[in-house]
Design brief:
With 341 residues, the chain is mostly helical. 82% of the residues lie in helices and 0% in strands. It has a domain of 230 residues. The chain has 17 helices and no strands.
Protein backbone atom coordinates (compact mmCIF):
# COMPACT_ATOMS: atom_id res chain seq x y z
CA UNK A 1 0.00 0.00 0.00
CA UNK A 2 2.90 2.38 0.71
CA UNK A 3 4.26 2.38 -2.84
CA UNK A 4 1.07 3.48 -4.63
CA UNK A 5 0.55 6.17 -2.02
CA UNK A 6 4.08 7.46 -2.49
CA UNK A 7 3.76 7.35 -6.26
CA UNK A 8 0.51 9.25 -6.05
CA UNK A 9 2.11 11.94 -3.87
CA UNK A 10 5.06 12.21 -6.23
CA UNK A 11 2.77 12.62 -9.28
CA UNK A 12 0.79 15.48 -7.72
CA UNK A 13 1.11 18.87 -9.38
CA UNK A 14 2.51 21.70 -7.29
CA UNK A 15 -0.89 23.37 -6.69
CA UNK A 16 -2.43 20.02 -5.66
CA UNK A 17 0.52 19.26 -3.41
CA UNK A 18 0.27 22.69 -1.80
CA UNK A 19 -3.45 22.27 -1.20
CA UNK A 20 -2.91 18.88 0.44
CA UNK A 21 -0.21 20.25 2.73
CA UNK A 22 -1.97 23.50 3.64
CA UNK A 23 -4.39 22.35 6.41
CA UNK A 24 -1.87 20.41 8.52
CA UNK A 25 0.95 22.88 7.92
CA UNK A 26 -1.31 25.83 8.76
CA UNK A 27 -2.41 24.12 11.98
CA UNK A 28 1.20 23.41 12.98
CA UNK A 29 2.30 26.98 12.23
CA UNK A 30 -0.70 28.41 14.11
CA UNK A 31 0.24 26.39 17.20
CA UNK A 32 3.85 27.59 16.82
CA UNK A 33 2.66 31.22 16.62
CA UNK A 34 0.60 30.84 19.79
CA UNK A 35 3.58 29.24 21.56
CA UNK A 36 5.85 32.13 20.61
CA UNK A 37 3.28 34.70 21.76
CA UNK A 38 3.00 32.89 25.11
CA UNK A 39 6.81 32.90 25.48
CA UNK A 40 7.11 36.59 24.58
CA UNK A 41 4.26 37.66 26.86
CA UNK A 42 5.64 35.84 29.89
CA UNK A 43 9.35 36.37 29.26
CA UNK A 44 10.07 33.09 31.03
CA UNK A 45 13.07 31.15 29.67
CA UNK A 46 11.46 27.92 30.88
CA UNK A 47 8.59 28.48 28.43
CA UNK A 48 10.59 27.63 25.35
CA UNK A 49 8.24 27.97 22.32
CA UNK A 50 9.18 24.44 21.29
CA UNK A 51 8.00 23.09 24.64
CA UNK A 52 4.79 25.15 24.63
CA UNK A 53 4.09 24.02 21.06
CA UNK A 54 4.58 20.40 22.09
CA UNK A 55 2.12 20.70 24.97
CA UNK A 56 -0.44 22.46 22.78
CA UNK A 57 0.02 19.93 19.99
CA UNK A 58 -0.47 16.96 22.31
CA UNK A 59 -3.56 18.56 23.83
CA UNK A 60 -5.15 19.49 20.51
CA UNK A 61 -4.30 16.07 19.06
CA UNK A 62 -5.99 14.38 22.03
CA UNK A 63 -9.16 16.42 21.37
CA UNK A 64 -9.45 16.39 17.57
CA UNK A 65 -7.54 13.21 16.81
CA UNK A 66 -5.73 13.06 13.46
CA UNK A 67 -8.19 13.89 10.65
CA UNK A 68 -7.03 12.74 7.23
CA UNK A 69 -7.07 16.31 5.90
CA UNK A 70 -4.24 17.43 8.22
CA UNK A 71 -1.98 14.37 7.90
CA UNK A 72 0.05 15.41 4.81
CA UNK A 73 0.86 18.83 6.24
CA UNK A 74 1.76 17.38 9.63
CA UNK A 75 4.10 14.86 8.00
CA UNK A 76 5.74 17.71 6.05
CA UNK A 77 6.24 19.73 9.25
CA UNK A 78 7.76 16.76 11.11
CA UNK A 79 10.46 16.10 8.49
CA UNK A 80 11.24 18.54 5.62
CA UNK A 81 10.40 21.66 7.62
CA UNK A 82 12.45 20.43 10.57
CA UNK A 83 15.46 19.65 8.41
CA UNK A 84 15.39 23.10 6.84
CA UNK A 85 15.28 24.63 10.34
CA UNK A 86 18.39 22.67 11.37
CA UNK A 87 20.21 23.86 8.23
CA UNK A 88 19.29 27.49 8.94
CA UNK A 89 20.55 27.11 12.50
CA UNK A 90 24.04 26.97 11.00
CA UNK A 91 23.92 30.72 10.32
CA UNK A 92 23.93 31.38 14.06
CA UNK A 93 27.32 29.77 14.72
CA UNK A 94 30.64 30.92 13.24
CA UNK A 95 34.11 29.47 13.40
CA UNK A 96 35.29 32.77 14.89
CA UNK A 97 32.97 32.29 17.86
CA UNK A 98 34.44 28.86 18.49
CA UNK A 99 38.00 30.20 18.27
CA UNK A 100 37.23 32.68 21.07
CA UNK A 101 36.84 29.84 23.54
CA UNK A 102 40.39 28.56 23.35
CA UNK A 103 41.59 25.00 22.85
CA UNK A 104 40.86 23.79 26.39
CA UNK A 105 37.22 24.88 26.30
CA UNK A 106 36.73 23.40 22.84
CA UNK A 107 38.13 20.08 24.05
CA UNK A 108 35.70 20.25 26.98
CA UNK A 109 32.77 20.79 24.60
CA UNK A 110 33.79 17.69 22.64
CA UNK A 111 34.23 15.65 25.82
CA UNK A 112 30.84 16.49 27.33
CA UNK A 113 29.13 15.47 24.10
CA UNK A 114 31.37 12.48 23.41
CA UNK A 115 31.02 11.02 26.92
CA UNK A 116 27.50 12.00 28.01
CA UNK A 117 25.76 10.39 25.04
CA UNK A 118 27.34 6.90 25.39
CA UNK A 119 26.94 7.10 29.20
CA UNK A 120 23.22 7.75 28.78
CA UNK A 121 22.81 4.87 26.35
CA UNK A 122 24.72 2.54 28.70
CA UNK A 123 22.73 3.59 31.77
CA UNK A 124 19.48 3.38 29.82
CA UNK A 125 20.25 -0.25 29.07
CA UNK A 126 20.75 -0.92 32.80
CA UNK A 127 17.45 0.80 33.61
CA UNK A 128 15.56 -1.09 30.91
CA UNK A 129 14.86 2.01 28.80
CA UNK A 130 14.33 1.45 25.07
CA UNK A 131 17.60 2.13 23.25
CA UNK A 132 16.14 4.71 20.85
CA UNK A 133 14.61 6.66 23.72
CA UNK A 134 17.94 6.53 25.57
CA UNK A 135 19.72 7.89 22.49
CA UNK A 136 17.27 10.78 22.22
CA UNK A 137 17.57 11.67 25.92
CA UNK A 138 21.36 11.44 25.69
CA UNK A 139 21.48 13.60 22.57
CA UNK A 140 19.24 16.26 24.09
CA UNK A 141 21.29 16.31 27.30
CA UNK A 142 24.70 16.38 25.67
CA UNK A 143 24.14 18.79 22.77
CA UNK A 144 21.30 21.30 22.63
CA UNK A 145 18.01 20.02 23.95
CA UNK A 146 14.96 19.96 21.70
CA UNK A 147 16.83 20.79 18.47
CA UNK A 148 19.21 17.90 19.01
CA UNK A 149 16.43 15.46 19.87
CA UNK A 150 14.36 16.14 16.78
CA UNK A 151 17.47 16.19 14.58
CA UNK A 152 18.82 12.91 15.99
CA UNK A 153 15.48 11.23 15.48
CA UNK A 154 15.89 11.73 11.74
CA UNK A 155 18.50 8.93 11.82
CA UNK A 156 17.45 7.04 14.97
CA UNK A 157 13.80 6.79 13.80
CA UNK A 158 12.22 6.43 17.23
CA UNK A 159 8.48 6.46 17.84
CA UNK A 160 6.70 9.82 18.11
CA UNK A 161 6.13 9.04 21.79
CA UNK A 162 9.88 8.57 22.29
CA UNK A 163 10.52 12.07 20.96
CA UNK A 164 7.71 13.56 23.04
CA UNK A 165 8.89 11.85 26.23
CA UNK A 166 12.52 12.84 25.70
CA UNK A 167 11.50 16.47 25.04
CA UNK A 168 9.53 16.51 28.30
CA UNK A 169 12.45 15.01 30.26
CA UNK A 170 14.99 17.43 28.78
CA UNK A 171 12.73 20.39 29.46
CA UNK A 172 12.23 19.40 33.10
CA UNK A 173 15.93 18.77 33.76
CA UNK A 174 17.08 21.84 31.84
CA UNK A 175 14.64 24.10 33.70
CA UNK A 176 15.82 22.72 37.04
CA UNK A 177 19.42 23.46 35.97
CA UNK A 178 18.46 27.01 34.95
CA UNK A 179 17.12 27.62 38.46
CA UNK A 180 19.84 25.83 40.45
CA UNK A 181 23.07 26.72 38.63
CA UNK A 182 23.29 30.39 39.74
CA UNK A 183 22.98 29.35 43.39
CA UNK A 184 25.49 26.54 43.01
CA UNK A 185 27.95 28.85 41.23
CA UNK A 186 27.77 31.34 44.10
CA UNK A 187 28.09 28.57 46.66
CA UNK A 188 31.30 27.32 45.01
CA UNK A 189 32.70 30.84 44.59
CA UNK A 190 33.29 30.39 40.85
CA UNK A 191 34.69 33.23 38.73
CA UNK A 192 32.43 34.68 36.05
CA UNK A 193 34.25 32.97 33.17
CA UNK A 194 34.43 29.60 34.95
CA UNK A 195 30.75 29.71 35.87
CA UNK A 196 29.78 30.66 32.32
CA UNK A 197 31.79 27.79 30.86
CA UNK A 198 30.18 25.39 33.33
CA UNK A 199 26.65 26.54 32.49
CA UNK A 200 27.33 26.52 28.75
CA UNK A 201 28.87 23.05 28.89
CA UNK A 202 26.13 21.53 31.06
CA UNK A 203 22.67 22.97 30.49
CA UNK A 204 20.48 21.52 27.75
CA UNK A 205 18.59 24.20 25.80
CA UNK A 206 20.37 27.24 24.36
CA UNK A 207 17.95 29.66 26.01
CA UNK A 208 18.32 27.86 29.37
CA UNK A 209 22.13 27.86 29.20
CA UNK A 210 22.32 31.51 28.14
CA UNK A 211 19.83 32.52 30.83
CA UNK A 212 21.70 30.69 33.57
CA UNK A 213 25.06 32.06 32.38
CA UNK A 214 23.72 35.64 32.32
CA UNK A 215 22.98 35.37 36.05
CA UNK A 216 26.76 35.26 36.62
CA UNK A 217 27.47 38.64 35.01
CA UNK A 218 28.91 39.84 31.65
CA UNK A 219 31.97 37.54 31.63
CA UNK A 220 29.83 34.52 32.47
CA UNK A 221 27.25 35.48 29.86
CA UNK A 222 29.83 35.73 27.08
CA UNK A 223 31.74 32.55 27.92
CA UNK A 224 28.54 30.59 28.56
CA UNK A 225 26.90 31.64 25.31
CA UNK A 226 29.92 30.76 23.18
CA UNK A 227 30.46 27.45 24.98
CA UNK A 228 26.84 26.53 24.35
CA UNK A 229 27.20 27.42 20.67
CA UNK A 230 30.25 25.13 20.52
CA UNK A 231 27.98 22.27 21.62
CA UNK A 232 25.41 23.33 19.01
CA UNK A 233 28.15 23.13 16.36
CA UNK A 234 28.71 19.49 17.36
CA UNK A 235 25.11 18.67 16.43
CA UNK A 236 26.00 17.86 12.82
CA UNK A 237 29.00 15.57 13.54
CA UNK A 238 26.97 13.83 16.26
CA UNK A 239 24.05 13.14 13.92
CA UNK A 240 26.41 11.73 11.29
CA UNK A 241 28.07 9.51 13.92
CA UNK A 242 24.67 8.37 15.18
CA UNK A 243 23.64 7.41 11.67
CA UNK A 244 26.74 5.24 11.32
CA UNK A 245 26.23 3.71 14.78
CA UNK A 246 22.57 2.88 14.09
CA UNK A 247 23.52 1.25 10.80
CA UNK A 248 26.24 -0.78 12.50
CA UNK A 249 23.84 -1.94 15.21
CA UNK A 250 21.24 -3.02 12.69
CA UNK A 251 23.45 -4.49 10.01
CA UNK A 252 26.37 -6.03 11.85
CA UNK A 253 29.87 -5.04 10.82
CA UNK A 254 30.51 -1.41 9.95
CA UNK A 255 31.99 -2.33 6.61
CA UNK A 256 28.64 -3.73 5.47
CA UNK A 257 26.53 -1.06 7.17
CA UNK A 258 24.59 1.37 5.04
CA UNK A 259 24.34 4.46 7.18
CA UNK A 260 21.63 7.02 6.42
CA UNK A 261 23.06 10.22 4.93
CA UNK A 262 21.83 13.18 7.01
CA UNK A 263 22.14 15.81 4.30
CA UNK A 264 20.61 18.42 6.55
CA UNK A 265 23.60 18.03 8.91
CA UNK A 266 26.00 18.77 6.07
CA UNK A 267 23.81 21.73 5.11
CA UNK A 268 24.15 22.98 8.70
CA UNK A 269 27.96 22.75 8.49
CA UNK A 270 27.96 24.47 5.09
CA UNK A 271 26.07 27.46 6.48
CA UNK A 272 28.46 27.61 9.46
CA UNK A 273 31.36 27.92 7.02
CA UNK A 274 29.54 30.40 4.77
CA UNK A 275 28.46 32.48 7.76
CA UNK A 276 32.07 32.54 9.00
CA UNK A 277 33.22 34.34 5.85
CA UNK A 278 31.42 37.53 6.87
CA UNK A 279 29.66 37.66 3.50
CA UNK A 280 26.23 36.77 4.87
CA UNK A 281 24.16 39.94 5.42
CA UNK A 282 23.19 40.67 9.02
CA UNK A 283 19.56 40.72 7.88
CA UNK A 284 19.85 37.07 6.79
CA UNK A 285 21.27 36.04 10.18
CA UNK A 286 18.54 37.99 11.97
CA UNK A 287 15.93 36.31 9.77
CA UNK A 288 17.30 32.90 10.74
CA UNK A 289 16.99 33.84 14.43
CA UNK A 290 13.31 34.53 13.81
CA UNK A 291 12.54 31.64 11.46
CA UNK A 292 14.33 28.77 13.21
CA UNK A 293 12.26 28.92 16.44
CA UNK A 294 9.06 29.19 14.37
CA UNK A 295 9.93 26.18 12.21
CA UNK A 296 11.14 24.09 15.16
CA UNK A 297 7.99 24.94 17.13
CA UNK A 298 5.78 24.05 14.14
CA UNK A 299 7.61 20.75 13.66
CA UNK A 300 7.28 19.80 17.32
CA UNK A 301 3.62 20.93 17.34
CA UNK A 302 3.02 18.51 14.45
CA UNK A 303 4.81 15.81 16.43
CA UNK A 304 2.53 16.51 19.39
CA UNK A 305 -0.54 16.24 17.15
CA UNK A 306 0.60 12.72 16.23
CA UNK A 307 1.41 11.60 19.78
CA UNK A 308 -0.59 8.83 21.42
CA UNK A 309 -0.89 9.66 25.14
CA UNK A 310 -1.53 6.03 26.05
CA UNK A 311 1.72 4.96 24.43
CA UNK A 312 3.46 7.80 26.25
CA UNK A 313 2.15 6.55 29.60
CA UNK A 314 3.45 3.06 28.88
CA UNK A 315 7.06 4.34 28.84
CA UNK A 316 6.94 4.52 32.67
CA UNK A 317 9.25 6.48 35.01
CA UNK A 318 12.60 4.90 34.03
CA UNK A 319 13.31 7.39 31.20
CA UNK A 320 12.76 10.28 33.61
CA UNK A 321 15.28 8.77 36.03
CA UNK A 322 17.66 8.34 33.10
CA UNK A 323 17.32 12.02 32.16
CA UNK A 324 18.01 13.13 35.74
CA UNK A 325 21.06 10.86 36.00
CA UNK A 326 22.36 12.07 32.63
CA UNK A 327 21.92 15.69 33.75
CA UNK A 328 23.96 15.03 36.91
CA UNK A 329 26.63 13.29 34.84
CA UNK A 330 27.12 16.15 32.38
CA UNK A 331 27.09 18.75 35.17
CA UNK A 332 29.81 16.92 37.14
CA UNK A 333 31.85 16.17 34.02
CA UNK A 334 31.71 19.81 32.91
CA UNK A 335 32.58 21.02 36.41
CA UNK A 336 35.66 18.79 36.49
CA UNK A 337 36.64 20.02 33.02
CA UNK A 338 36.30 23.68 33.98
CA UNK A 339 38.47 23.05 37.08
CA UNK A 340 41.19 21.59 34.85
CA UNK A 341 40.97 24.49 32.38
Amino acid sequence: MAAPSSASAASQSFPDRARSLAPGLALSLAIAAVAIVVRNMTGLAALNPVVVALVLGVGIGAVIGRPAVVKPGIAFAVRPLLRFAIVLLGLQVTLGMLAQLGLGALVLAVLVVGLTLPFTIWLGKLLGVDEKLSVLIGTGTSICGASAIVAANQVVRGEDEDVTYSLAVITLCGTASLILFPYLGDLMGMTGRAYGLWAGASIHEVVQAVGAAAAGGPDASQSGTVMKLARVFLLAPAVVALGWWVAKRHHGEAGHAKAPVPWFAFGFLALVVIGSTGLVPKEAVDASRFLVPVMLAASVAALGLQTDLRALHRRGAAPLLLGIASTFFIALLALAGVAVI
